[in-house]
Design a protein that fits this description.
Number of domains: 2
Distance between the termini: 8 Å
Helix content: 10-25%
Order of helices and strands: HEEHEEEHEEEEHEEHHEEEHEEE
Strand content: 35-45%
CATH architecture of the largest domain: Roll
Number of strands: 17
CATH class of the largest domain: Alpha Beta
CATH superfamily of the largest domain: Diaminopimelate Epimerase, Chain A, domain 1
Structural class: alpha+beta
Strand order of the largest sheet: 1-2-3-4-6-7-8-17
């Protein structure tokens, strides 16, 4: 996939690179832009750059060096408070620039620690989310979401009730009891976007739990101008926190493997570590995409 360098970026004192996160090959995972400079561009400039890059999110990082950074995330249509896959991509980008270590990201959702390690010729990153939490989804929002998706209440896994879950951004978790339900994703883009905007949701997290530790996920993301996100680290962290909250994990600490993006032809692998308390650790790799 080849993209032209946004003209606005060329006029700004920073460097823009493209990565695919939660994968070891450019054609897999979830693409993200990573911009690094001494001072963040204006909100209008960041929005323009993100729209021109065209990925589900672009991260903007300043200053260009040091352990503590300010980070902002933009989809092609709006700023989002936190983005997991762009954070992993950012960690790998900083590793390539400055080497392994721990970086502290100051995001709109709060402070996120990112540990970067060198693994052979590649870098991996592990983010620790803000404190996760969940809350009830209204009956009206749930009914409308199911209708837009073409799901029935009988499709849901009673062991994981529908819930709004948070670890930097809000996601609606809908667990299917059968794998076949997750294989089909066909919805009214504008209707779901309106519903999610009204309820403050970043993605829908549609999951099927193969086992206690292996989960398959699909994430509609119309509020970001994207039909489906191939890897969503923020929702993975939110899910880990929610499963801990309802005691749905057979052991603690727990390590989950989330498969996402398979149906899109962009397979992604997300590793989630859930400790008894505190933030959820989401880890993965990222690879450069030729610009």
């Amino acid at each position: 996939m080849k993209h032209e360098q946004p003209q606005e970026t060329l006029m700004l004192a920073g460097q823009l690179k493209r990565y695919s996160a939660f994968t070891d090959r450019p054609e897999g995972g979830n693409p993200a832009g990573v911009w690094v400079g001494e001072t963040l561009p204006t909100a209008e400039q960041m929005q323009q750059i993100a729209a021109e890059v065209g990925y589900s999110e672009t991260a903007f990082i300043a200053p260009a060096s040091g352990a503590r950074r300010t980070v902002r995330y933009y989809s092609p249509e709006a700023e989002v408070p936190f983005c997991g896959h762009a954070t992993i991509a950012s960690g790998v980008a900083l590793g390539q620039r400055e080497g392994s270590g721990n970086y502290l990201f100051s995001t709109r959702a709060g402070e996120v620690s990112v540990q970067v390690d060198e693994q052979g010729q590649r870098y991996t990153a592990a983010l620790t989310s803000v404190e996760p939490r969940s809350e009830t989804v209204s009956a009206e929002v749930l009914e409308n979401a199911l209708q837009i998706l073409g799901w029935q209440a009988s499709d849901l896994d009673e062991r994981i009730p529908p819930r709004r879950a948070y670890a930097g951004a809000w996601h609606l978790v809908l667990a299917a009891k059968d794998a076949s339900r997750l294989e089909q994703l066909n919805y009214d883009f504008d209707a779901l976007k309106h519903l999610m905007e009204a309820d403050g949701l970043t993605t829908l997290q549609l999951i099927w739990r193969e086992s206690d530790t292996v989960i398959h996920s699909r994430n509609p993301f119309p509020v970001g101008g994207v039909v489906e996100d191939p890897a969503t680290g923020a929702s993975a962290a939110a899910l880990g926190g929610y499963l801990r909250e309802i005691n749905a994990l057979s052991a603690m600490p727990a390590q989950l493997t989330i498969h996402q993006g398979v149906a899109m032809g962009r397979p992604s692998l997300i590793t989630v570590a859930v400790k008894p308390t505190g933030g959820i650790v989401v880890s993965g790799g990222a690879v450069d995409i030729e610009a």
